[in-house]
Amino acid sequence: MPAYILVHLNGLLLDVTKAYQDNVKLQWLALRQSNVKFSIAQEDYAALEKRIKPSILVNDSEGYWHKFWKHALIEIGLNPTPSVLDKTLAKFRTFMIHSSHLYTDVMPFLKQAKQQSIRVVLCEDSSKEYVNKALEQFGLKDAFYKTIIVEGFRRSQKEFYDQVFETLNITAKDALILSSRVDKDYALASDCHFETLLVLRRFFRSINTQKRTAQTQNAINLLHVLDDARITTTNESDTASEETDRFETIPSFEDAFKKLTMIDNEARADEHDNPADEKEEYDESFSAEFDTIGAHITQKKKKEKNEQNTENTALEEEFDEDYELALETLKTRML
């Protein structure tokens, strides 16, 4: 059973939704602030980005943005010197980090993992500069058992994980890899027969729904990962008894829905008193509340199914449909 959990930043620990929504603008700002000769309008740059983007492939140690900006600068008549590219990339990383935020389940996950003596390892193919900026920005400098930055390989390559395992002096069977994209990191880990779990983040929902197969193993959020019996803990018997007690107090789906609706109604009643800048914080707490209850209900359904000793998946499918419907309903009410 795995004693290590391997995680990454963008898309798994960091919600990069806004950063990617504003991605073209952030690129344009980074280029403008790092190169005094860059004078192209944002609208023209957006058209240029759209034209060049499909032709850029990352299959070696050179990152996507270095390749992309080489093409872009050459096309607009500027010299893509290493110093210009490095300055642009540094600016872009800063903008990306400040446009992202930590998922609300990250700190509870790290705290609970530490209590269970589970070693959470941050594994990155990003630069040291980006990783260090992100760790400092979000207060994660001492949050991990170890931080491993693999140079020369992407997270979608087997060699990336080979280096991680070698650094930790472990084998693949000792680790659980948490993935955020089924078409990239999950697909690679599965093809290599690594133990892996797909954490369902809304940012990658359209990709994961489209690409996911029946064999994909999912977790609703990071706390749900720690409910999985495959994780090694210091005292499994104590954990098992705690889980049994907790399951007895988990509300039904209907009760959970009522609770969340009540939270929503209370917030709406106070809507005129809430400043606009507090809405995002409220949205995040609401989302975390819903996801946590959803994870607990899923576990209860699985427990009931195991007790029935049946392979019938109708119950789980029924819950999934109810959960998705409720989520969409509540999201609509939030708008």
Give an overview of the whole structure.
The structure is a single chain. The chain contains 15 helices and eight strands. The model is unreliable at 229-253, 277-282, 309-319 and 331-335 (pLDDT under 50). The chain has three domains: 4-16 and 102-225, 3-Layer(aba) Sandwich (Rossmann fold), CATH 3.40.50.1000; 17-98; 250-334. The longest helix is centred in the last third of the chain and has 30 residues, at 279-308. Helix 13 (253-269) packs antiparallel against helix 14 (279-308) and helix 14 runs antiparallel to helix 15 (314-334). By secondary structure, it is of the alpha/beta class. Strand 6, helix 9 and strand 7 (196-199) form a beta-alpha-beta unit. The strands form two sheets. The protein has a six-stranded parallel β-sheet, sandwiched between helices. A two-stranded antiparallel sheet has the order 2-3.
User: How do the helices and strands follow one another from N- to C-terminus?
Assistant: EEHHHHHEHEHEHEHEHEHHHHH
Structural class: alpha/beta
The number of distinct β-strands equals: 8
CATH architectural grouping of the largest domain: 3-Layer(aba) Sandwich
Q: What Rg is obtained from the alpha carbons, in whole angstroms?
A: 22 Å
Give the spatial strand order of the biggest sheet. Answer: 5-4-1-6-7-8
Largest sheet: 6 strands, parallel
Might you state the CATH topology name of the largest domain? Rossmann fold
Termini Cα gap: 43 Å
Low-confidence stretches: 229-253, 277-282, 309-319, 331-335
Helix content: 55-70%
> What is the number of helical segments per DSSP (H or I, 4+ residues)?
15
CATH homologous superfamily assignment of the largest domain: HAD superfamily/HAD-like
Domains, number: 3
Q: What coarse outline follows from CA principal-axis ratios? A: globular
